[in-house]
Amino acid sequence: MIRATLLAVGLLSALAHTGAAVEAPALATVDGATLFNDRCGSCHERAVDRAPSRAVLGTLSASEILAAMTSGEMAPMSKGLDVTQMQAIAVYLAPNPSDGSIAVGSPSGPAHPCASSAVLRSSPSDWPMAAMDLTASRFQPHPGFSATEVPKLTVKWAFALGGGVYGQPIVIGDFLFVTSRAGQFYALDARTGCVRWMVTGASSRTSPIVAPSSLSPSGWVTYIGETSRTVRAFDAATGKEIWRSSVLDTHPLARLSGSAIVSGDLVFVPISSAEEVAAKRADYSCCSFRGALVALEKATGAVRWKTSVITEPTRAIRKNAVGIPMQGPAGAAIWSAPTADEKRGLVYVATGDSYTEAQTRGSDAIVAIEMQTGKIRWSTQVTSNDNYVNGCAGPGPASANCPNPLGSDFDFGGSPILFTLAKDRQILLSGQKSGLTYGMDPDSGAILWSTRVGSGSSLGGVEWGIATDQAHLYAPNADTMNLMEEARRAQGRPPRKTIPLAPAAPSLTAVDPATGRIIWQTPTPKAPCRMRGLCIHASSAPPAVMPGVVFSGSTDGWLRAYDSASGAIIWAFSTTASTYTTVNGVTNQPGGAIDGTGPTIADGMIFTLAGYNGAESFGGNGVNVLLAFSVNGK
């Protein structure tokens, strides 16, 4: 009871973001263990499908578990539970707060404010959006340090960031912007990590975008997408709100996971969803979400247009195994930031899988949409009938909503890249969870080549994105689920998948953008790591590139630098080899998985976040660490 009461006090701040709160004594009377066993154990005790195991859940903080149940991936499965019951489950699962293994931190205020103000000024070495530029290259041509200096990179400062899921750091001049699902949106000093300003109640997993604009006194505006399915614009120098959009999608399971981009007078916002998780419930009428792109007026946040990438009409399919009506087509979530083609007046998006057997050509596709009208110019599907919801591919009773036929869950999870070839010809590059990379004609969507870089699985292949420089396409391959199945076999445990997976091949591959020919492929090393749960060496996060060097992180907490010409590893750093004393007052802060978002290179430094709570939550801490590297730590 004492532990429950103490943790409840810490959870009240997290509940403030949900608009609900309970008293700690009330929580102490609720049996979290019984609630977990009754409501959650059937999936998590046996780690069904992609559900993290009970042991993995025990590595998370109580506030992170609560956030997942109230506004995150587990909100659909928490239907019918009141706030007190959800708190009780979170307290039951959370690690002992006195064991020192997971830093709790205090991300509720600026523990280390900057001593002086600063003017926000651009530099040639800025990284202003998630994928670096509107073509989504993830290439920094002016890094501020050379390839020969990369082996001298050392941690300069660290910052604890609550929430478990976060956006990629964005850098303009001396300002660094970063979001988290815990609700704090920070502007830090990129050189020292001190806090320039902080906005609370801004729960977000999207990377900010910072763009020049006359809307703000400073001449700079930053935009973020929130878990409430709204977009907010702030003065980037002060954090003062300029506008807030309406709710962009009324589907209760819609989400904003991909970052927005700004082109001309519009802000383009991708819409994704968690309906794939909700469909595990037998009483859920599957499925009705449709991935979409929304164009907002940059000046006001008003909706200019909204386009669904599924164009076929909704129809009734059948009743599920317990008699609940099913419908479709549905799915085609857009997980990543769009890519702008200002010459053609197009914006490109990459879509996820289908949720039902009602056929659509909008899933697992690259789609070109006209910027000004929202009209679909072309749509190229690479995998048909990729119908998938959670709870269908593992041992044990299948979900009542399983589609027939069942697909492999081969979403596109990263932004397409618009690449310029010789003689100003262009090609559109992409990578899929199938392990395939593609080159397409940006005028028609015709597939020009496809090349396999990995085995692929529901958590495999190219998970979160690719990168280019002037010469090569760089594709990280995760094969996370394949690695997990191999680890289970090595431990003498039964597989979680009913269909055998191909051997895992985690790696980084350089591909010729013109032909798809593989230039080099470097396996991701299996290296020591210190984290709770499995050490899985999947290359899941998108890479970042500078002249001569590719930086790529892995889910076992390693960040590596590869020679871009040969693929040789020239530097490696384990975020879990030690703990950190952060500039915002957290001691013994651990590192963790690098996943979801990639490194940021700007003005002589490289920034990465470690501790991401991904689909399986291994390597997640609930409180992440933002690490800032510079040459010799200067």
Low-confidence runs (pLDDT<50, min 5 residues)?
1-24, 96-109
Biggest sheet details:
5 strands, antiparallel
User: What is the share of helical residues?
Assistant: 10-25%
For the secondary structure, the number of strands is: 35
Rg, Cα atoms, Å? 23 Å
Number of helices: 9
- Span between termini: 48 Å
Strand content: 25-35%
Structural class: alpha+beta
Globally, the shape reads globular
- Mean of all residue-level pLDDT scores: 88
Can you describe this structure?
With 634 residues, the protein is α+β, with helices and mostly antiparallel strands. The chain has a domain at 2-93. The protein is 11% helix and 28% strand. Strand 22 (426-431) and strand 23 (436-440) form a beta hairpin.
What is this structure's SSE topology?
Layout: H1 2-16, H2 24-28, H3 32-39, H4 41-44, H5 54-57, H6 62-70, H7 83-93, E1 153-162, E2 170-172, E3 175-178, E4 185-189, E5 195-199, E6 209-212, E7 220-225, E8 231-235, E9 241-244, E10 254-255, E11 261-263, E12 266-273, H8 275-278, E13 292-297, E14 303-308, E15 315-319, E16 325-328, E17 339-341, E18 346-350, E19 365-370, E20 376-381, E21 417-420, E22 426-431, E23 436-440, E24 447-452, E25 467-468, E26 473-477, H9 480-490, E27 507-511, E28 518-523, E29 544-546, E30 549-553, E31 558-563, E32 569-574, E33 600-602, E34 605-610, E35 623-631
Antiparallel strand pairs: 1-35, 2-3, 3-4, 4-5, 6-7, 7-8, 8-9, 10-12, 11-12, 12-13, 13-14, 15-16, 17-18, 18-19, 19-20, 21-22, 22-23, 23-24, 25-26, 26-27, 27-28, 29-30, 30-31, 31-32, 33-34, 34-35
Helix pairs in contact: 1-6, 1-7, 3-7, 6-7
